[in-house]
């Protein structure tokens, strides 16, 4: 006897079969789904608290996505064989699920919700993070949790032959010109995350259109399942403040808040808003002691209304700009001359200090995944310290937000990084956000590009990034270029676009409307291109192209080729010889099985010394060339001379001098150098 699921179903999505079942596993969760694609399977659950969390004025949603190595038939690497702490890759997958479902919960819903997605099996092609998005949304759709489903997530790529494919396999992803995860519902777009190889904006739109068409069978399947299961959302009436209280608070606070929201400087504006808020709350705490939280909500909604009214009615933003205006930009390359590359990028009140560092292959980051071990040659670290927004917080490791922003900046720059064959260095970019008032990840892209060029790294083209916003009401909508923190917080969209003069390299979209019409996104893409070109022009005033030479402080590199049968002479017994070369020259020596030798020196002198040692150890004589050798033995008939390690030759006594030589010892002794 075995348990049977309450419902099973499957559908075809662009030639790929997706299977789902519910009601057999994790039956005590509000919603659970076992989802499969080929040999890849995930269990995704959704659980919601019955009551709101006390004292909470935000939606407490948490998403946990975990990849167990047993899913690929492996043990974790390292000493401990238990599953370890959550990885950056898993955190990025958590964020994809979170950003897909969060906008679709009702306003004012403060019950704690937890979604867990566990990868149970992985076959190499299943794309588990996309299955986690579909499964998470399905678990909510099949539950009694208030949720505006259905919504699905699909990966869409543009292949080298120009085809747009949904749910690609691993091979198609490796060579894709565009790779995007798109979360979409029947009424519009919800979330977007992707990277591209300088593709035109029209390719991004084509990918969204493909996702919209490919997702329809999944919408049908999810709605059929919900109907068959008899799912009904639990009643939820969003808390609404008393109408009289709203009117009274508006009468007191509207005029001073409108005046405060015309202050251009962030800190001065925020201080004015905070003062008004404290005064109003103190005033109503006496007359309405049981409604203090309602007063705070009313004030927040009033701020939102004022900002939106200015944008829609006056085409004016809180800092006085028009919808398409970019904040003043200040750029400086080489701000820290002793480093390999550095830049300071300032856009309004957002600033990033970025450093580029060059290293050897030994500095590559090893990453263990379900698909196997990978090595990251290009790395980007993003830091958002509390002082950047004038706050005090405990200094801990990077949070999920920092990891997500760093990954976005990484994708924005990755398309223009030279290949290892073009530039055989490991490259690390470190960005510290020193001021923030919106779009710090895009400041990292701009500053990162300048730091790379300052280091002399031959990037394909300069890259810039911009964050776009949206204020909409009914049929009216205004797209904002280069948004502030307040416009992100109180607006409807945060759409980040990075790219070059030739095309897009990375995109990221979050929205608060729930469903975003595709035509609005297309409009935002066109406006983002105009802003990006303006920023690139400003960046070119500091540095228009990579410096012709590496920084004097950067390590030097040289690539040599030796015969594979000579590798053993370079390495020596148990690596003794190669370690001696490194110790005596100060250079790092790397050799691969095909005979490629990479020499990394802290300066030119160390590099030349290492080159000479490698040539001495691995060289092979060529007819007609002159060499300097060492006499290793003296005989009556001549002497033996070592040209290279393991290669000696006899110089006959008749060749030791132009005249007659009676004894070899008259000309040569052991240890002598001979040309």
Characterise this structure.
This protein is of the alpha+beta class. It has five domains: 223 residues, Ribosomal Protein S5, domain 2; 72 residues, Polyribonucleotide nucleotidyltransferase, RNA-binding domain (Arc Repressor Mutant, subunit A), CATH 1.10.10; 211 residues, GHMP Kinase, N-terminal domain (Ribosomal Protein S5, domain 2, 2-Layer Sandwich); 63 residues, Ribosomal Protein S8, Chain: A, domain 1 (2-Layer Sandwich), CATH 3.30.1370; 46 residues, Nucleic acid-binding proteins (OB fold (Dihydrolipoamide Acetyltransferase, E2P), Beta Barrel), CATH 2.40.50. The chain has an eight-stranded antiparallel β-sheet with strand order 8-7-9-10-21-20-18-19, with helices on both faces. A six-stranded mixed β-sheet has the order 1-2-3-4-6-5. The longest helix has 23 residues.
The whole-number mean of residue pLDDT values reads 93
> What overall geometry do the principal axes of the alpha carbons give?
elongated
Might you state the CATH topology name of the largest domain?
Ribosomal Protein S5, domain 2
Q: Strands of the biggest beta sheet: in what spatial order?
A: 8-7-9-10-21-20-18-19
> How much helix is in the residues?
25-40%
Please identify the top-level CATH class of the largest domain.
Alpha Beta
Tell me the distance between the termini. 88 Å
CATH superfamily of the largest domain: GHMP Kinase, N-terminal domain
CATH architecture of the largest domain, by name, is 2-Layer Sandwich
Low-pLDDT runs:
none
The description of the largest β-sheet is: 8 strands, antiparallel
Rg over alpha carbons: 32 Å
Helix-strand category: alpha+beta
Strands, count: 28
- Beta-strand content estimate: 25-35%
Task: Count the domains.
Answer: 5
Structure annotation, total helices: 15
């Amino acid at each position: 006897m075995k348990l049977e699921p309450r419902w099973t179903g499957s559908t075809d999505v662009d030639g790929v079969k997706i299977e789902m079942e519910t009601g057999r596993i994790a039956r005590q969760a509000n919603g659970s789904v076992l989802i499969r694609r080929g040999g890849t399977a995930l269990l995704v659950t959704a659980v919601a608290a019955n009551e709101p969390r006390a004292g909470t004025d935000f939606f407490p949603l948490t998403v946990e996505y975990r990849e167990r190595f047993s899913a690929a038939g492996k043990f974790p690497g390292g000493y401990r064989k238990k599953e370890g702490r959550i990885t950056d890759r898993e955190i990025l997958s958590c964020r994809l699920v979170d950003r897909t479902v969060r906008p679709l919960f009702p306003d004012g819903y403060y019950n704690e919700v937890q979604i867990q997605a566990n990868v149970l099996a992985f076959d190499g092609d299943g794309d588990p993070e996309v299955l986690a998005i579909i499964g998470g949304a399905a678990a909510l759709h099949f539950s009694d949790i208030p949720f505006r489903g259905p919504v699905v997530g699909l990966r869409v790529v543009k292949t080298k032959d120009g085809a747009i494919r949904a749910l690609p396999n691993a091979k198609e992803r490796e060579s894709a010109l565009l790779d995007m995860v798109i979360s979409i519902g029947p009424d519009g777009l919800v979330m977007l995350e992707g990277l591209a190889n300088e593709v035109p904006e029209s390719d991004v739109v084509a990918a969204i259109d493909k996702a919209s068409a490919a997702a329809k069978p999944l919408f049908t399947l999810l709605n059929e399942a919900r109907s068959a299961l008899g799912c009904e959302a639990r009643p939820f009436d969003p808390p609404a403040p008393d109408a009289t209280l709203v009117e009274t608070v508006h009468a007191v606070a509207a005029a001073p808040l409108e005046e405060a929201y015309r202050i251009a400087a962030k800190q001065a504006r925020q201080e004015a808003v905070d003062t008004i808020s404290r005064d109003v709350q103190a005033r109503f705490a006496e007359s309405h002691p049981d409604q203090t939280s309602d007063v705070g909500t009313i004030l927040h909604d009033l701020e939102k209304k004022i900002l939106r009214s200015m944008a829609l009615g006056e085409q004016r933003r809180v800092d006085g700009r028009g919808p398409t205006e970019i904040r003043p930009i200040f750029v400086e390359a080489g701000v820290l001359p002793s480093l390999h590359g550095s830049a300071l990028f300032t856009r309004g009140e957002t600033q990033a200090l970025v450093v580029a560092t060059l290293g050897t292959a030994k500095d590559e980051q090893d990453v263990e995944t379900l698909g196997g071990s990978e090595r990251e040659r290009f790395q980007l670290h993003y830091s958002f310290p509390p002082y950047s927004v004038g706050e005090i917080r405990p200094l801990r490791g990077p949070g999920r937000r920092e990891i997500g922003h760093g990954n976005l900046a990484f994708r924005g720059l990755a398309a223009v990084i030279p290949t290892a064959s073009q530039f055989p260095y490991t490259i690390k970019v470190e960005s510290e956000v020193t001021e923030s008032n919106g779009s710090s990840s895009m400041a990292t892209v701009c500053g990162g590009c300048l730091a790379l060029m300052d280091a002399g790294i031959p990037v394909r083209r300069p890259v810039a990034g911009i964050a776009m916003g949206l204020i909409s009401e009914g049929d009216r909508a205004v797209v904002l270029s280069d948004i502030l923190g307040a416009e992100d917080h109180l607006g409807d969209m945060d759409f980040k676009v990075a790219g070059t003069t030739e095309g897009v390299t990375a995109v990221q979209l979050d929205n608060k409307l729930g469903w975003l019409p595709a035509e609005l996104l297309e409009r935002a893409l066109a406006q983002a291109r105009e802003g990006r070109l303006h920023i690139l022009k400003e960046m070119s005033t500091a540095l228009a192209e990579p410096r012709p030479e590496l920084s004097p402080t950067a390590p030097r590199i040289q690539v040599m080729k030796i015969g594979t049968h000579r590798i053993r002479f370079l390495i020596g017994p148990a690596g003794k010889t190669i370690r001696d070369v490194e110790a005596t020259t100060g250079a790092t020596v790397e050799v691969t099985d095909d005979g490629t030798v990479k020499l990394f020196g802290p300066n030119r002198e160390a590099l030349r010394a290492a080159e000479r040692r490698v040539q001495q150890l691995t060289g092979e004589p060529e007819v007609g060339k002159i060499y300097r050798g060492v006499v290793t033995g003296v005989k009556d008939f001549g002497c033996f001379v070592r040209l290279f390690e393991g290669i000696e030759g006899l110089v006959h006594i008749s060749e030791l001098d132009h005249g007659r030589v009676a004894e070899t010892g008259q000309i040569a002794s052991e240890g002598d150098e001979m040309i």
